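Problem 12. The chain below contains 66 residues. Write out its predicted structure in token notation.
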Amino acid sequence: MKTRIKELRAKHNLTQEDLAKKVNVRRETIVFLEKGKYNPSLQLAYDVSKVFNLRIEEVFVFEDSK
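Solution.
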């Protein structure tokens, strides 16, 4: 899964730590999300999307595994 988190953080002038605090996770979780090494729970995806006032599918890009 790809994400637009890094791009959106830059646009909103947020550090990884800032975003982590807003969604109640550790900074490392944001790092792993940005690198595509961690699939978030639905709740975390919702919380991250809400910070940017976007829909989940506008932040997280789900790829078909055909």
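Discussion. Residues 1 and 62 are 5 Å apart (CA to CA). Students who got a different answer should revisit the alignment rule from Section 12.3.
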